[in-house]
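note to self — DONT lose this again. spent like an hour looking for the file last time. sequence + predicted structure for the chain T wanted, 231 res
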Amino acid sequence: MVSRCFVLRAIVMEYNNFQDRVTGDLARRKKELIDLKQLVQFTQNEDAKDILRRAILPLQYAHWEGFIKFLGVAVLNYISDMHIKYVDLLPTFSAIGIYRALRSSVPESDLGRTMLLMRFVSGHFREDLENELFDLSNCQEWVDTKSNLNKKVLEELLFLFGIRLSEIRNNEHIENNWLDVFLGRRNKIAHGGLDKVGQDDFEESADRIVALLDLFSGVFLDYVEHRRFLR
């Protein structure tokens, strides 16, 4: 029989590996954002500064979306590797299992589809899943930022993990709609708009994106450390 101490050590090791991955990815992103900010500061030519600020603003957004996608996939992989039963996880993870079961078994005939939906409505899929292990072969498909990670999309993504955006402390950059305004500017530039980005706005967005990366790094590290994915 596997000892409890062995299991606990394994959990700690898994968490440490997860933590190392998150802090490593975060450090790389923050360094690039800071380096890009300094590149603009050290550029003397004002026309070149204007070009750099416009070019870098979509990159700032890319680090925001990229980090959230990285976190979501990393957490799902972590949970999947823990070999936990659906019945022991939050209901949102059972919803993933039910959806996968439905998608993989939809028959071609109308009668077959009707019978399948009847099984779903009567709860058979939930019963079938209870003792199955949560095991995702492709975690990326469940972390959809829609290439437009605004407040609404973020709320939907966090809901998958049982996290409510309104309960996250110090998220004023999202709640005061700064993120959505920033995303609107990014979209205009990315689609060929010639909007100018002033130095103050550029530095503010650089600082706020770094703050958001730090915030959600802490949110997901806490989520995994305290096993908030369990019922």
